[in-house]
Amino acid sequence: MWDAFGFDFVNFYLIPGLVLGCIYALGAIGITLTFSILRFANFAHGEIMMSGAYLTWTVMAIAGYAGLTLHPLVAMVPAALLVILLFLGTDKLFYKPFRNADTIKVVMASFGMMLIIRSAVQVIWGPNQLTFVRGIAKPNPVLRDMSSDIGMMLIIPNKHLFIFAGTVIIVFALSYLLNRTRIGKAMRAVSDSPDLAHVTGIDVDKVIRATWIVGGICATAAGVFLVMDVQMLETTMGFRMLLPMFAAAILGGIGKPYGAVFGGLVIGLAEELSAYPWIGDAPLLSPGYKTGVAFAIMVVMLIVRPQGLFKGRSF
Amino acid sequence: MEAYVGYFLYFLSLLTVGGIYAIFALGLNVNWGFAGLFNVGIVGFAAVGAYTYALLTTAESTFHIGGFGLPLPFGMFAGMMTSAVIAGLIGLICIRLRADYLAIATIGIAEIIKLILKNETEITNGPRGINKIPRAWEHFSEERFYSSWPMSWFGTPENWEAFFDTLPNWYWQPLFAGTILLVMYVIYRMLERARTSPWGRMMTAIRENEPAARAAGKDVTRRRIEAFIIGAAIMGLAGSLFAQHLRLIEPTNTFDPSKVTFLVWVMLIVGGSGNNRGAMLGAFLIWTLWSASELIITGAINLIGDIFSTLDPSILQTRAGFLRMMLIGILMQVILQRYPGGILPEVRPASPKADNNTRVSTGETK
C-alpha cells in the first residue's frame, strides 16, 4: 500500500530521521567512550564536532584556491587528523591535570572547554554561516527510477547515501577495532574496570589517547555529515547536538558503543517522526519542539532504566 | 562636569549589572557551593523570572498575553516563585542522579524553556520578545504610573510631570543601582544565616560525604531539593531584575546560554565557591573585567584600524566579543587548575557549641 501517504512518510520523515540518527549515533559513540573510559560527561564534544566541520570547510577552501574541488568526505580526512591533534592537546592542557581530582572538576573543565573552542572558532571563522556546497541536492536518479519501477518512489539525494554509507563503514571499523585489535580490547577492559585493567598492566594513558582519537574521528564525521545534511555551517550547531547525543548515549547505555549507535538512530527517528501527523492532519508535535523529544526520552530513561537499553553502567 | 556625570553613570551601570550578576552568583552558590549541585541551567531560571516579571508588569499589549500592569514588587515575587516551582519539579525527578546527569538535565531544561518562549508566540511574542518592561524608579515618570494610586493621591498628573521635568533624566539610575545592591545585601545576609545555621552545616556534610550524611540520619534527597529550589528562586529574582535593566527581552540573544550561564559560573569559581562574599566579589570583578575589556579592545581595534588603513575595523569589531569570551574561559581554566578555592576560599562555619579557640583557628570572625 504505497500511496501518497506512504510516500510522504518514507521520504520526508523516515529517511531524514535515519540520517539524523546516523549523525547522532556517530557523536554519541565519542561521548559514550569518554564517559566510560575517562569517566566524565564531555560537554565539549559538540564543539569538537563543530570545529571538525569548520576544519573540513577550510581544507576545501584551501584546495579550492589551488584549483581542486574536494568532496567534503575527502577533505574530512586531513580535518580529522587536525581534530585529533586538537583533542590530544586539550586533553593534555585541560583534562589531564584533573585526572585524579573530583569528576565534577573535569566536567566543569569540559564546560569551559566548550566555550573556549566555540569562541575560538567564532574568532577565526567569524559568526556568519558557511556552507560546503551551494544549491539544491537532487535525488539520486538511479535509485529513483529503480524504485518507481516497483511502485515505491524513493527520493534520496546523494548526500544522504554518503551519510548512510559513511556511518556503516565507521561503525564496522569501530567494531573491528574494539573486538579484534589489542588496543580495542584494552579500551573495553578499561571501560569495564579501570583498576583491574591497571593491575593487569594495561597502559591507561595509551588507552585514553586511543579514546580521544576514536572519539575525534567519529565526531569529525558526525560534524561533516551534519553540515552535508543541512548544508549550513554555524557555530551553535555543536551545542544543539549536545543534548540529543547525550540522550542517545544514555538510551543505549553508557559505555556501550553499539548501544550509542542504536540510541542515536532511535533518537533521530523519534525527533523526526514526532512531527508526523499520526492523528489527523496537524503534526503530532510542533516541529519547534523537536529537541524536546530527545530530552524527554533522556529523562524517562534516567528514571526508568538508568543503565540504558544495553545494560551500560549506571551512576 | 558632563564628563564626570558620564563617569559616574558608567560606574553606576557597573554596579547595577554587577549587582544583578552577584545575585545570580549567590543563587548558584546555594546550588553548587552549599549542596554541590552542578546547575548549568542558570539561563533557564533567569528567563523564567524575567518573562514572568515582564508579562505581569508591562502595560496591556496586543503582542503577547496580558501585560497586566501589576505592581513591580509583585512581579518580582512572582518571578521568584515560578522559577522555584519549575526547580521543584526538576528536583523531584533529577536530584537523585549523579552530578553529570543533573548538569545535562539542567541544560535540557534551559533549552526547553527557550523553545517554549520561542514557539508560544501568542503568550510571549515569540522571537521578537517583550519590550517596554517597567524599571524600578524610572517607571514613576511614566504616565500610567503617576496617574494611578498611590501617586495620584499626592499630585495631579500635571504636577508630577512638572516634578519629573525638574529631575535630571538619569535620576533613577542611583536609585535603581541602590535597590539592586539592597536586594543583594538582603539575600547575602539571609544566605549567611543559612550557611552558619544547622541547615547550612548539614548541606556541607551532604556535599562532602553523602553516605556519611545519610548514615547520620539526614534526608539527603529532600535537602538537595531544598537547596536547588532556593538557588533557583534567587536566580528567578535576579532574572526579573535583569529584565528591568534590559527593558527588552527576547529568548535567543538575551538569554544566550553560553554567555549568562558561563559568566555566572566563572564568577563563582573565581570568587570562591561556597563563600557568599566570594560569589559577590567574583561577580563584580568579572563583570568589571568584562566591560573594561570591551573598552580596551575597542580602543585597540581603533588603533589597529588607524595603523593598517587597509583593514576594515568592523570585521575585528564583530569578533572582539568572542575573543573576550575566550579569554574569560581560559581564566576559568587557570583558576580551576591553580586556585581551585577561588580568591576567597570557603570558610567552614563552626558549630555554635565549639569554643572560641576553634573559632579563631577555623578563621570564623564573629
TrEMBL record, chain A:
Origin, by domain of life? Bacteria
Span of the signal peptide = none
Q: How is this protein annotated for GO cellular component?
A: plasma membrane
| A Pfam family matched in the record | BPD_transp_2
Could you tell me one molecular function GO term of this UniProt entry?
L-leucine transmembrane transporter activity
Cite the InterPro entries for this sequence. Answer: ABC_transp_permease, BCAA_transport_permease
Family, according to the entry, reads as follows: Belongs to the binding-protein-dependent transport system permease family. LivHM subfamily.
Keyword terms? Amino-acid transport, Cell inner membrane, Cell membrane, Membrane, Transmembrane, Transmembrane helix, Transport
Does Cell membrane show up as a keyword for this record? Answer: yes
Which CDD domains does its entry note?
TM_PBP1_LivH_like
Q: Which residues cross the membrane?
A: 12-36, 48-67, 73-94, 106-125, 161-178, 242-267, 287-304
Q: Where in the cell is it found?
A: Cell membrane
Q: Which PANTHER family match?
A: BRANCHED-CHAIN AMINO ACID TRANSPORT SYSTEM PERMEASE PROTEIN LIVH (PTHR11795), HIGH-AFFINITY BRANCHED-CHAIN AMINO ACID TRANSPORT SYSTEM PERMEASE PROTEIN LIVH (PTHR11795:SF371)
Question: What protein name applies here?
Answer: Branched chain amino acid ABC transporter permease protein
- For this entry, list what GO says about its biological process: D-alanine transmembrane transport; L-alanine transport; L-isoleucine import across plasma membrane
Q: How does it sit in the membrane?
A: Multi-pass membrane protein
Name the predominant localization: membrane
UniProtKB/TrEMBL annotation, chain B:
Question: What's its membrane topology?
Answer: Multi-pass membrane protein
Arranged from A to Z, the UniProt key words for this protein are:
Cell membrane, Membrane, Transmembrane, Transmembrane helix
Task: Give the location in the cell.
Answer: Cell membrane
The record's CDD domains line, in alphabetical order, gives: TM_PBP1_LivM_like
Matching entries from InterPro entries are given as:
ABC_transp_permease, LivM-like
| Residues that span the membrane, as ranges | 6-27, 34-54, 74-94, 101-117, 170-188, 227-246, 258-274, 281-304, 316-336
**Entry protein name:** Branched chain amino acid ABC transporter permease protein
**Which organism does this record belong to?**
Octadecabacter antarcticus 307
The taxonomy runs: Bacteria, Pseudomonadati, Pseudomonadota, Alphaproteobacteria, Rhodobacterales
